[in-house]
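Problem statement: downstream parser choked on a complex file, so we are re-checking the raw output for the zinc ion run. The parser issue turned out to be on our end (a line-ending mismatch), but while we're here, posting the original submission so the record is complete.
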Amino acid sequence: MPLTHTLGSITITSLLDGAGPFFMPREEAFPDATEANWHEADRRDPDAIGPDGGWWLPFRAFALRTGDGPVTLVDAGIGPADAPAASWAPVPGRLPAELADAGIDPADVRTVVLTHLHSDHVGWAGSLFPNADHLVQRAELDALELFHPELPARLLGPLRADGRLRVLDGDTDLTPGVRVLSTPGHTPGHQSVLVESGDERLLVTGDLLVHAIQLIDPALCYVHEEDRAGAGRTRERVLSTLSPLLLATPHLGAPFTPHP
Ligand SMILES: [Zn+2]
């Protein structure tokens, strides 16, 4: 069964679309990390270590739901066998089966928040969720040509034609207790989703961080961040202003990670 966490009336479900070894040595992915950083990261998040000692990378989406109401999905995984992520990620993903295991009918997904438009976050977007608006930051669309020139035709074209692409400008309230936060750096229009109930907070991070090593030193850059300095600043700001909070992450070994 997919792992869940409940915050007030909202259930957050972790959906594992796939997992596999990262395509480059982890020391190259985080060139400034020290031995001590790695030691501490491995202690905190042992499931991110693969059988050969390299970086083992899960790919997750998260579902937010109150009771049997409409579902908000954050990110859409690596996708089917012919998805854009096929060149590097372990497609086909298993999100449809994960949704079934979680008791979620894709037709009940009314909102898909795409944290950013990298290929491992948009794989099932569009076609699998016929009743969903797809939410993207305007800054992300404006920068699209930087990384996925094929996406406009493949994903965004049909969504636009159906009137199911919703463009956001910065922080945006979605439903009571659920808010989209602008978290640029990994990509220019990166966004995360904050869930709040009383004084409890959960952040569905997207790639605000991709490895536990960035919790030990939030300034540590990841080579695939499009604005490395900006990503580090955003990470430091978000973690320092929102903590304590629970992090729901696509790529850490554990789906839910407390941050003190
Ligand atoms: Zn990612």
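For whoever reads this later: Residues 4-259 form a domain with the Metallo-beta-lactamase; Chain A fold (CATH 3.60.15.10).
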